[in-house]
């Protein structure tokens, strides 16, 4: 799974970079803008953004501002703080996931299309619900790991 994520994210970032390069060359050097390039770049850009957040959840490398860690002395206290943080993340994330699911159902029902190329926007809209579901899965896995770590320390 790690290998697939690495190659997918690399492919998406290359597509986005290439699209931006073409945009700059055609628009500013050749003075001929490519119609619809912004629309087509929306899809890999959005998926890259969402899957990048999923990757941060998978690796447990999200940016955190754990100010309370300064005042905590023991590893047990740090683990308990991590569990509390994961629980809060799960509650907020599941709430957002329910909104994303409602939005996905709406996007499926309405089936909007992009204005120039008529590409269905559902394919970018669905990224949000898939991304949030995966982030909640990895958050739950991380929380389970912290709980397991806390139990292991309690046994000692």
Report on this model:
With 156 residues, the chain is mostly helical. The protein has one domain (2-155). Helix content is 78%, strand content 0%. It has four helices and no strands. α2 (37-59) packs parallel to α4 (122-155) and α3 (75-110) runs antiparallel to α4. The chain is elongated.
Number of strands: 0
Beta-strand content: under 5%
Query: In one word, what is the shape?
Result: elongated
Overall average residue pLDDT: 93
Low-confidence stretches: none
Largest β-sheet summary: none
Please give the share of residues in helix.
over 70%
Total domain count: 1
Distance between the termini: 34 Å
What is the number of helical segments per DSSP (H or I, 4+ residues)? 4
Query: Secondary-structure element order, as H and E?
Result: HHHH
Structural class: mainly alpha
Cα Rg: 20 Å
Record the SSE blueprint.
Elements: H1 2-29, H2 37-59, H3 75-110, H4 122-155
Which key terms come to mind for this protein?
156 residues, mainly alpha, 4 helices
In short:
By secondary structure, the protein is mainly α. The chain has four helices and no strands.
